[in-house]
Amino acid sequence: MLVESPTDYGHTWRVFKYFAKDCATSFPNITSGQAQGVGDLVCDSKYSDIEPSTGGEVVLKVFDPSFEIENPYSPYIQDLVTLTNLRINFTRLHALGDTLLGRRQNDSLDKYYCALYEMVVRGSCFCNGQASECVSTQKKHSDVFSPPGMVSYKLT
């Protein structure tokens, strides 16, 4: 699984973080384990085991709390935390061993799917100090996909 985010309403997606049971196999060019610094792109295997098959959770924090950030308003840090969309890309499913039961491989994999039962995203409106508040609007960005439930904001 990978989490992607753009800053331009879906035109240019960048990977924010990788998750896999076996990072070396799933994402061979990505470093496995803990990030060593702000902005490190890594693959985390902590949340990708076969158990629990339901009720599991993935926790993604923008920054590891142990990192010292000298200036959170620097352009580099602001570029890391500013986004307009969020995309979860499920790249591989666990087979749960059913392929060992003598069934055709495609038959056993056809019944698998993954579902997201709850997603909590916390953030704030970015206004560069030009507004006193951000209010919800129904403005659609006609040049990109605008799914139901997508919330846009305007500055007031």
Which SSEs are present, and which pair or pack?
Blueprint: E1 2-5, E2 14-19, H1 23-26, E3 31-32, E4 42-44, H2 75-81, E5 87-89, H3 105-110, E6 134-137, E7 152-155
For the sheet with most strands, the description reads:
5 strands, mixed
Rg of Cα set: 19 Å
> What CATH architecture of the largest domain would you give?
Sandwich
Strand content: 15-25%
Helix content: 10-25%
Shape estimate? globular
Estimated structural class:
alpha/beta
Stretches where pLDDT is under 50 for at least 5 consecutive residues are none
Q: Please count the helical segments.
A: 3
Tally of domains:
2
Report the strand count. 7
The CATH superfamily name of the largest domain is Galactose-binding domain-like
First-last Cα distance? 37 Å
CATH topology of the largest domain: Jelly Rolls
CATH class of the largest domain equals: Mainly Beta
Short description:
This protein is α/β, with parallel strands linked by helices. The protein is built from three helices and seven strands.
Protein described:
There is one protein chain. The protein is α/β, with parallel strands linked by helices and 156 residues long. The chain folds into two domains: 1-123, Jelly Rolls (Sandwich); 124-156, no CATH class. It is 11% helix and 17% strand. It is built from three helices and seven strands, in the order ββαββαβαββ. The strands form two sheets. The chain has a five-stranded mixed beta sheet, with no helix packed on it. A two-stranded antiparallel sheet has the order 6-7. The mean pLDDT is 75.
